[in-house]
Amino acid sequence: MLTALGPFTIDLYLPAFPTLESDLGVSPAAIQLTLTGTMIGFGFGQLVVGPWSDKVGRKLPLILATAFHILACIGAALSTDIVWLGVFRVLQGFGAAAGAVVALAMVRDLFGGKPLVKMLSRLALVSGLAPVLAPVIGSQLLLVMPWRGIFWVLAAYGAVVILAVTFFIVETLPKTERHVRGHNTLGQRYRAVLGDRTFVGVAIIGAMTFTGLFSYLSASPFLFQQVYDLSAQQYGILFAVNSLGIVTGVQLSSRLMHRLNIGPQWILSVSTVVLLVTALAIMVLDIAGAGLWGTLVPLWFFIAACGFTLPSVQVIALNGHGHEAGTAASLLGAANFGVA
């Protein structure tokens, strides 16, 4: 639930892009800027919430940031023009960032070794699947409500998150573990993470992977609904099929690491090659005029490769940073959404 809040905030309204374009009387580029703004807010929010959670614990930043997210959702639902919608979308992204970064930090607080691989694989499944499923759910919501209703749904989701955190989730970083020698200040925590060349390397790989995934997500409403003339519901079904690619990639990666003891470094080597080959295939087939299926087939394997990559990135990045898990998770997430 925590991990999905950010991707749902970013992508739930994607099927409404054509409707927003006509309703607000703006260009497709202006609508896409609201998506870009959300991702900027999401990336910056992680940089704030992650180190904050290392200092004061996990629950308080999560509750306050999610409350901020709810207020921003209400503002977006009541927006009358593209400027205010864009402003509130940035604020939505900022508030939603807490769920993703704190969830990763909490898992690192509780687990290490093989259990960490298993739990991070589950989180990677959610973080990879949620951006793909969100437009499917959004397209169905548009059947029963206007585009503004999507933001009311997100506000309700945020309220459920706050209730769950308040009453059902325990604090995983007790006061006795918040001050470790050499890891007390913000600067010390950032130096510990950014001084790790392995972390920096896998963060770059993760960011490039998310760039490809979110480029597809941001362009897909116009590509499939306007260029290929699919309805919002057909677009949702297409995303449901693509979601199987994420599931396949994450599950395969998890099985290879957890059960067969194949190293995450090897998995990243393979997945990087697959990402490059499938991306090239999409471009070549488009130039050749292969049509809808010429896009969909290599695209499915590209999305599967994204799912194959995510668990390994998180395992390598977080495994060596138990004392500054929130800071490491925030930098990893900010790299993903900042570059994308």
Automatic annotation (TrEMBL):
GO terms for biological process: xenobiotic detoxification by transmembrane export across the plasma membrane. SUPFAM superfamilies: MFS general substrate transporter. The keyword Membrane applies. The chain crosses the membrane at residues 29-50, 62-84, 90-111, 123-143, 149-170, 199-223, 235-254, 266-293, 299-318. InterPro entries: Efflux_drug-R_Bcr/CmlA (IPR004812), MFS (IPR011701), MFS_dom (IPR020846), MFS_trans_sf (IPR036259), Sugar_transporter_CS (IPR005829), Tet-R_TetA/multi-R_MdtG-like (IPR001958). GO terms for cellular component: plasma membrane. The keyword rRNA-binding does not apply. One of its GO terms (molecular function) is xenobiotic transmembrane transporter activity. Keywords: Cell membrane, Membrane, Transmembrane, Transmembrane helix, Transport. It is a multi-pass membrane protein. It comes from the Bacteria. Residues 1-340 form the Major facilitator superfamily (MFS) profile domain. It is found in: Cell membrane. It holds the Pfam family MFS_1. Belongs to the major facilitator superfamily. TCR/Tet family. This is Major facilitator transporter.
